[in-house]
């Protein structure tokens, strides 16, 4: 199993493989009617997702580049409407992990400033050595004590992307494992940042002086999928087997993180068998188009999909 992210690695199945209910094609009027009927639904989904991102940033005083746990939980809830999933419950589970990390950290440095943090604080520790102690404690608790690990055996499983399942099963793929790692680190004062690295989502940890002009070599890159291993630039390239430009080592904002997460679900949805309901594909299309409503190819795919499933506009309006 190659150590890659789901994005871009799914089936090559194209939208044209999904035939419409009757004649295998849609005319312009059909598509136009469909898009009008689903416009309000898309706005509703987008409003919920954007609100999750906005509230996350405001409530946590987080910079734009920090991945949003709130948005990831919203995605989880939308794709699993029959499951009892709440941000409060997921945060409580993460807080329990933070408590274990603090217990381990106390054994490393009983006077560590992170031990004095109160719940909900957004303080950051600036000393590299103190940050390193936190990461050492995190790696011990997550990977040795709680046995979290990257899911290499069942990589292309949507459960790897749902945060409540990552916590229950203690496994995931690079982006979900990174989001968990990032959330814990920031609660303990370590300012890690998300990196939308091709094929394998990473985090970066600044080693340069505050205020200095930095380049990609002033960071250590953390592979949460690989038990928190700390990587150099060269090792990152070795990880995916190719050279990449410096721009791909840059931090990404909340929306880009969620886009990649939903994009992974979309790739997995396209791999579903033709005898299934395409529920994952339907949900991921809804979410992706809520963030990027002008993606014409995906709009056409959504239209073809719903017509294929016999979900005609007039019926959908009644259901909504």
UniProtKB/TrEMBL annotation:
Pfam families noted in UniProt: Transglut_core2
Domain Protein SirB1 N-terminal, first and last residues per copy: 90-262
InterPro entries per record: SirB1_N
Superkingdom of source: Eukaryota
Cross-referenced PANTHER family: F-BOX ONLY PROTEIN 21, SI:DKEY-261L7.2
Protein name per its UniProtKB record: Protein SirB1 N-terminal domain-containing protein
Organism, scientific name: Eschrichtius robustus (California gray whale)
């Amino acid at each position: 199993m190659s150590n890659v992210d789901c994005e871009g690695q799914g089936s090559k199945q194209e939208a044209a493989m999904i035939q419409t209910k009757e004649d295998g094609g849609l005319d312009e009027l059909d598509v136009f009617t469909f898009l009008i009927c689903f416009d309000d639904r898309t706005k509703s989904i987008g409003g919920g997702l954007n609100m999750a991102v906005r509230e996350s940033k405001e409530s946590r005083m987080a910079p734009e580049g920090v991945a949003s746990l709130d948005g990831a939980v919203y995605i989880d809830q939308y794709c699993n409407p029959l499951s009892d999933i709440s941000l409060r419950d997921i945060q409580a589970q993460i807080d329990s992990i933070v408590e274990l990390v603090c217990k381990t950290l106390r054994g490393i440095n009983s006077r560590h400033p992170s031990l004095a943090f109160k719940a909900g604080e957004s303080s950051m520790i600036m000393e590299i050595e103190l940050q390193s102690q936190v990461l050492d404690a995190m790696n011990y608790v997550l990977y040795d004590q709680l046995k979290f690990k990257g899911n290499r055996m069942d990589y292309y499983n949507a459960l790897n992307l749902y945060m409540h399942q990552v916590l229950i099963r203690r496994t995931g793929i690079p982006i979900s494992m990174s989001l968990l790692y990032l959330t814990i680190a920031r609660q303990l004062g370590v300012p890690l940042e998300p990196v939308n690295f091709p094929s394998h989502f990473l985090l970066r940890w600044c080693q340069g002086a505050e205020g200095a002009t930095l380049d990609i070599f002033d960071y250590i890159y953390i592979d949460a999928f690989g038990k928190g291993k700390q990587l150099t630039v060269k090792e990152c390239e070795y990880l995916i087997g190719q050279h990449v430009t410096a721009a791909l080592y840059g931090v990404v904002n909340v929306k880009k993180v969620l886009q990649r997460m939903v994009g992974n679900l979309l790739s997995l949805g396209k791999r579903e068998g033709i005898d299934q309901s395409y529920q994952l594909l339907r949900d991921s299309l809804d979410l992706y188009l809520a963030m990027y409503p002008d993606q014409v190819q995906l709009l056409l795919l959504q239209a073809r999909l719903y017509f294929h499933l016999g979900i005609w506009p007039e019926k959908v309006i009644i259901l909504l």
